[in-house]
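TA notes, week 10

Several of you asked for a full example with nothing omitted. So below is the full record: C-alpha cells for the whole chain, then the designed sequence directly under it. When grading your own attempts, check the secondary structure regions first.
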C-alpha cells in the first residue's frame, strides 16, 4: 500500500533543494500559484513581461552569484538578507520607492526565500507584492536557460 503524506509535508518536500527540479514540484508550484492570492504563475509572469506595466518591479532575492549565473529578464537583484534588513529597518529601497502603487513580484530559486521576502514587504506596508512561486527553477526549465 502507498502512504500519502499530508499536503503540508508534500509542500516542504517539493520545495526542498533535492526536489526543486522534479516535475511534480513544478506542477505543484503552478497549481499553488493559481489557488493562492499573492502568487504569480509562470503564464501570468510571461504576459506581464511581454508588456510590462510602468509600475512593475521584478526582484530576484537570490544571492548575487546566483543572479549572475542566470536571471529572469528585467529583474533586479536584492539578496534576501539585504532585502529584509532594509525593509524592516525602513531603509530606502530605490527599486521600490512607492509602497502603495508599485506592482512588485519577487522570486528566488524555488519560491521559499521570495515568500519570506513577501512576508517582510507586506509587514513593512507594501500593498502590491506577490511571489512567483515557480521562481528561477521553473523559469529556467521552461525557457531552456541554465541555472
Amino acid at each position: 500500500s502507498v502512504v500519502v503524506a499530508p499536503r503540508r509535508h508534500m509542500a516542504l518536500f517539493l520545495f526542498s533543494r533535492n526536489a526543486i527540479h522534479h516535475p511534480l514540484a513544478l506542477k505543484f508550484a503552478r497549481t499553488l500559484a493559481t489557488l493562492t492570492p499573492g502568487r504569480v504563475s509562470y503564464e501570468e509572469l510571461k504576459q506581464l513581461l511581454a508588456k510590462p506595466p510602468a509600475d512593475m518591479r521584478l526582484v530576484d532575492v537570490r544571492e548575487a552569484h546566483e543572479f549572475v549565473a542566470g536571471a529572469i529578464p528585467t529583474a533586479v537583484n536584492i539578496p534576501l538578507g539585504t532585502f529584509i534588513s532594509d525593509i524592516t529597518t525602513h531603509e530606502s529601497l530605490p527599486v521600490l520607492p512607492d509602497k502603495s502603487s508599485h506592482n512588485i513580484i519577487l522570486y528566488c530559486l524555488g519560491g521559499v526565500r521570495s515568500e519570506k521576502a513577501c512576508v517582510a514587504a507586506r509587514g513593512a506596508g507594501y500593498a502590491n507584492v506577490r511571489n512567483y512561486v515557480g521562481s528561477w527553477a521553473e523559469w529556467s526549465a521552461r525557457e531552456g536557460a541554465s541555472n
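Confidence is low (pLDDT under 50) at residues 1-20. Use that as a sanity check on your answer.
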